[in-house]
Amino acid sequence: xxxxxxxxxxxxxxxxxxxxxxxxxNPQATNxxxxxxxxxxxxxxxxxxxxxxxxxxxxxxxxxxxxxxVLLELARIAGQKKPTVGxxxxxxxxxxYGAPDDWKGSHDEKWWGMGTQLWxxxxxxxxxxAQYGILLDMVGAPDATFYREYYSERYASAYVDQIWHTxxxxxxxxxxxxxxxxGITDDHVFVNQILNLPTVDIIDTRMxxxxxxxxxxHTTGDTPDKLSKETLQKVGNLLVKLLW
Length: 244
Fold this sequence. Notes:
Strand content: 15-25%
Strand order of the largest sheet: 1-2-4-3-5-8
Number of strands: 10
Helix content: 25-40%
Shape: globular
Number of helices: 5
Order of helices and strands: EEEHEHEEHEHEEEH
Protein backbone atom coordinates (compact mmCIF):
# COMPACT_ATOMS: atom_id res chain seq x y z
CA UNK A 1 0.00 0.00 0.00
CA UNK A 2 1.23 3.49 -0.81
CA UNK A 3 0.08 6.92 0.28
CA UNK A 4 0.34 10.13 -1.70
CA UNK A 5 0.38 13.25 0.45
CA UNK A 6 0.39 16.80 -0.83
CA UNK A 7 -0.90 20.29 -0.09
CA UNK A 8 -3.91 21.20 -2.21
CA UNK A 9 -5.29 24.65 -2.91
CA UNK A 10 -9.06 24.78 -3.26
CA UNK A 11 -11.28 27.12 -5.28
CA UNK A 12 -11.17 29.98 -2.73
CA UNK A 13 -7.36 29.94 -2.38
CA UNK A 14 -7.23 28.13 0.96
CA UNK A 15 -4.60 25.37 1.28
CA UNK A 16 -4.82 22.06 3.11
CA UNK A 17 -3.28 18.58 3.11
CA UNK A 18 -4.83 15.67 1.25
CA UNK A 19 -4.03 11.97 1.00
CA UNK A 20 -4.51 9.39 -1.75
CA UNK A 21 -4.26 5.71 -0.80
CA UNK A 22 -3.40 2.99 -3.32
CA UNK A 23 -3.35 -0.74 -2.60
CA UNK A 24 -2.25 -3.35 -5.15
CA UNK A 25 -2.81 -7.08 -5.60
CA ASN A 26 -0.52 -9.16 -7.80
CA PRO A 27 1.98 -6.30 -8.26
CA GLN A 28 3.94 -8.33 -10.83
CA ALA A 29 0.93 -8.84 -13.12
CA THR A 30 1.14 -6.88 -16.36
CA ASN A 31 -2.63 -7.09 -16.97
CA UNK A 32 -4.07 -4.64 -14.44
CA UNK A 33 -7.45 -3.12 -13.64
CA UNK A 34 -7.88 -0.06 -11.42
CA UNK A 35 -10.96 0.34 -9.21
CA UNK A 36 -11.33 3.77 -7.66
CA UNK A 37 -13.61 5.82 -5.45
CA UNK A 38 -13.27 9.03 -3.46
CA UNK A 39 -12.96 8.79 0.29
CA UNK A 40 -13.33 12.48 1.15
CA UNK A 41 -16.66 14.09 1.98
CA UNK A 42 -17.93 17.45 0.75
CA UNK A 43 -17.30 20.19 3.33
CA UNK A 44 -20.60 21.93 2.57
CA UNK A 45 -24.23 20.79 2.31
CA UNK A 46 -24.73 23.35 -0.45
CA UNK A 47 -27.60 21.44 -2.11
CA UNK A 48 -29.65 21.20 1.08
CA UNK A 49 -33.14 22.67 0.74
CA UNK A 50 -32.51 24.51 4.02
CA UNK A 51 -29.99 27.29 3.38
CA UNK A 52 -29.11 27.44 7.08
CA UNK A 53 -27.47 24.01 6.63
CA UNK A 54 -25.24 24.97 3.70
CA UNK A 55 -22.07 25.49 5.74
CA UNK A 56 -22.28 22.11 7.47
CA UNK A 57 -20.18 19.20 6.15
CA UNK A 58 -21.87 16.31 4.36
CA UNK A 59 -21.85 13.06 6.34
CA UNK A 60 -21.42 11.32 2.96
CA UNK A 61 -22.73 7.85 3.72
CA UNK A 62 -23.49 7.35 0.02
CA UNK A 63 -21.41 10.06 -1.68
CA UNK A 64 -18.08 8.65 -0.59
CA UNK A 65 -18.46 5.93 2.01
CA UNK A 66 -20.50 3.53 -0.15
CA UNK A 67 -17.72 3.19 -2.71
CA UNK A 68 -15.11 2.88 0.01
CA UNK A 69 -17.07 0.03 1.59
CA VAL A 70 -17.17 -1.87 -1.70
CA LEU A 71 -13.41 -1.41 -2.21
CA LEU A 72 -12.63 -2.62 1.29
CA GLU A 73 -14.68 -5.76 0.69
CA LEU A 74 -12.89 -6.32 -2.62
CA ALA A 75 -9.59 -6.08 -0.77
CA ARG A 76 -10.78 -8.70 1.74
CA ILE A 77 -11.87 -11.07 -1.03
CA ALA A 78 -8.62 -10.56 -2.94
CA GLY A 79 -6.72 -11.54 0.20
CA GLN A 80 -8.60 -14.85 0.33
CA LYS A 81 -8.79 -15.67 -3.37
CA LYS A 82 -6.18 -13.94 -5.48
CA PRO A 83 -7.35 -12.97 -8.97
CA THR A 84 -5.20 -13.71 -12.01
CA VAL A 85 -5.17 -10.03 -12.99
CA GLY A 86 -3.56 -7.29 -10.97
CA UNK A 87 -6.07 -5.07 -9.15
CA UNK A 88 -5.17 -1.56 -8.05
CA UNK A 89 -7.58 -0.18 -5.46
CA UNK A 90 -7.40 3.60 -5.45
CA UNK A 91 -8.97 5.76 -2.71
CA UNK A 92 -8.77 9.32 -3.98
CA UNK A 93 -8.95 12.41 -1.79
CA UNK A 94 -10.22 15.96 -2.45
CA UNK A 95 -12.77 14.90 -5.07
CA UNK A 96 -15.62 16.95 -3.68
CA TYR A 97 -14.09 20.40 -3.09
CA GLY A 98 -15.39 22.27 -6.15
CA ALA A 99 -16.99 25.66 -5.62
CA PRO A 100 -20.67 25.65 -4.60
CA ASP A 101 -22.83 27.02 -7.41
CA ASP A 102 -23.88 30.25 -5.75
CA TRP A 103 -20.75 31.02 -3.72
CA LYS A 104 -17.86 33.34 -4.53
CA GLY A 105 -14.69 31.83 -5.97
CA SER A 106 -13.47 30.09 -9.11
CA HIS A 107 -15.91 27.63 -10.66
CA ASP A 108 -13.35 26.00 -12.96
CA GLU A 109 -13.76 22.21 -13.20
CA LYS A 110 -10.11 21.76 -12.16
CA TRP A 111 -11.17 22.20 -8.52
CA TRP A 112 -13.01 18.87 -8.68
CA GLY A 113 -11.17 15.54 -8.53
CA MET A 114 -7.92 17.12 -7.36
CA GLY A 115 -6.60 13.93 -5.73
CA THR A 116 -7.19 12.01 -8.93
CA GLN A 117 -5.45 14.69 -10.98
CA LEU A 118 -2.41 14.34 -8.72
CA TRP A 119 -2.40 10.55 -9.05
CA UNK A 120 -2.79 10.70 -12.83
CA UNK A 121 0.09 13.12 -13.25
CA UNK A 122 2.42 10.99 -11.12
CA UNK A 123 1.24 7.73 -12.71
CA UNK A 124 1.88 9.20 -16.16
CA UNK A 125 5.46 10.11 -15.20
CA UNK A 126 6.01 6.59 -13.87
CA UNK A 127 4.59 4.95 -17.01
CA UNK A 128 1.67 3.29 -15.22
CA UNK A 129 -0.44 1.04 -17.44
CA ALA A 130 -3.73 -0.77 -16.90
CA GLN A 131 -6.29 -2.40 -19.16
CA TYR A 132 -9.16 -0.26 -17.90
CA GLY A 133 -10.62 1.37 -14.81
CA ILE A 134 -13.92 1.52 -12.95
CA LEU A 135 -14.98 4.44 -10.76
CA LEU A 136 -17.63 3.98 -8.06
CA ASP A 137 -19.61 7.01 -6.91
CA MET A 138 -22.80 6.88 -4.85
CA VAL A 139 -23.41 3.14 -5.18
CA GLY A 140 -25.48 2.42 -2.07
CA ALA A 141 -29.01 3.85 -2.39
CA PRO A 142 -31.91 1.35 -2.33
CA ASP A 143 -33.46 2.92 -5.45
CA ALA A 144 -30.19 3.62 -7.27
CA THR A 145 -30.05 3.69 -11.06
CA PHE A 146 -26.76 3.48 -12.96
CA TYR A 147 -27.11 4.80 -16.50
CA ARG A 148 -24.41 4.62 -19.18
CA GLU A 149 -22.65 7.89 -18.35
CA TYR A 150 -21.72 10.08 -21.32
CA TYR A 151 -17.95 10.46 -20.78
CA SER A 152 -17.64 6.76 -19.98
CA GLU A 153 -19.15 5.95 -23.36
CA ARG A 154 -17.01 8.56 -25.09
CA TYR A 155 -13.70 7.21 -23.75
CA ALA A 156 -14.44 3.60 -22.76
CA SER A 157 -17.48 2.40 -24.71
CA ALA A 158 -16.28 -1.22 -25.02
CA TYR A 159 -15.97 -1.53 -21.25
CA VAL A 160 -19.34 0.15 -20.70
CA ASP A 161 -20.81 -2.55 -22.96
CA GLN A 162 -19.01 -5.27 -21.03
CA ILE A 163 -20.10 -4.02 -17.61
CA TRP A 164 -23.76 -3.39 -18.48
CA HIS A 165 -23.99 -6.69 -20.41
CA THR A 166 -22.58 -8.58 -17.43
CA UNK A 167 -25.00 -6.80 -15.08
CA UNK A 168 -27.93 -7.83 -17.29
CA UNK A 169 -26.75 -11.45 -17.29
CA UNK A 170 -26.67 -11.36 -13.49
CA UNK A 171 -30.23 -10.04 -13.31
CA UNK A 172 -29.25 -6.49 -12.37
CA UNK A 173 -30.85 -4.77 -15.36
CA UNK A 174 -33.12 -2.61 -13.20
CA UNK A 175 -30.06 -1.28 -11.36
CA UNK A 176 -27.75 -0.96 -14.39
CA UNK A 177 -30.12 0.72 -16.82
CA UNK A 178 -29.02 0.11 -20.41
CA UNK A 179 -29.67 3.69 -21.54
CA UNK A 180 -27.47 6.72 -22.14
CA UNK A 181 -27.28 9.05 -19.16
CA UNK A 182 -25.87 12.54 -18.74
CA GLY A 183 -22.23 13.62 -18.59
CA ILE A 184 -20.69 13.96 -15.12
CA THR A 185 -17.46 15.79 -14.26
CA ASP A 186 -16.12 13.04 -12.01
CA ASP A 187 -12.73 11.45 -11.31
CA HIS A 188 -12.96 9.22 -14.39
CA VAL A 189 -12.79 12.23 -16.72
CA PHE A 190 -9.28 13.05 -15.49
CA VAL A 191 -8.15 9.42 -15.70
CA ASN A 192 -9.36 9.23 -19.28
CA GLN A 193 -7.91 12.57 -20.35
CA ILE A 194 -4.59 12.67 -18.45
CA LEU A 195 -3.65 8.98 -18.44
CA ASN A 196 -5.54 7.96 -21.57
CA LEU A 197 -6.77 5.01 -19.50
CA PRO A 198 -10.33 3.98 -20.47
CA THR A 199 -12.35 4.34 -17.27
CA VAL A 200 -16.07 3.86 -16.61
CA ASP A 201 -18.09 5.76 -14.03
CA ILE A 202 -20.72 3.75 -12.15
CA ILE A 203 -22.68 6.61 -10.61
CA ASP A 204 -26.24 6.97 -9.36
CA THR A 205 -28.20 9.40 -11.55
CA ARG A 206 -31.94 9.93 -11.75
CA MET A 207 -33.21 10.62 -15.26
CA UNK A 208 -36.73 11.18 -13.90
CA UNK A 209 -35.40 14.03 -11.73
CA UNK A 210 -33.98 16.40 -14.35
CA UNK A 211 -30.95 14.16 -14.78
CA UNK A 212 -29.56 14.91 -11.32
CA UNK A 213 -28.26 12.67 -8.55
CA UNK A 214 -30.04 10.85 -5.79
CA UNK A 215 -32.18 13.16 -3.63
CA UNK A 216 -29.76 13.47 -0.68
CA UNK A 217 -26.69 14.43 -2.74
CA HIS A 218 -24.69 17.15 -0.95
CA THR A 219 -27.29 17.55 1.79
CA THR A 220 -27.57 16.78 5.49
CA GLY A 221 -29.69 13.78 4.50
CA ASP A 222 -26.79 11.70 3.13
CA THR A 223 -26.81 9.44 6.18
CA PRO A 224 -26.30 5.67 6.74
CA ASP A 225 -30.03 4.96 7.05
CA LYS A 226 -30.36 5.85 3.35
CA LEU A 227 -28.12 2.95 2.28
CA SER A 228 -29.11 -0.50 1.06
CA LYS A 229 -26.95 -3.54 1.71
CA GLU A 230 -28.64 -5.21 -1.27
CA THR A 231 -27.49 -2.48 -3.66
CA LEU A 232 -23.97 -2.55 -2.25
CA GLN A 233 -23.84 -6.34 -2.56
CA LYS A 234 -25.00 -6.26 -6.18
CA VAL A 235 -22.33 -3.73 -7.11
CA GLY A 236 -19.73 -5.82 -5.31
CA ASN A 237 -20.95 -9.04 -6.92
CA LEU A 238 -20.66 -7.46 -10.35
CA LEU A 239 -17.08 -6.34 -9.72
CA VAL A 240 -16.12 -9.81 -8.46
CA LYS A 241 -17.64 -11.32 -11.62
CA LEU A 242 -15.68 -8.92 -13.83
CA LEU A 243 -12.37 -9.22 -11.97
CA TRP A 244 -12.33 -12.95 -11.28
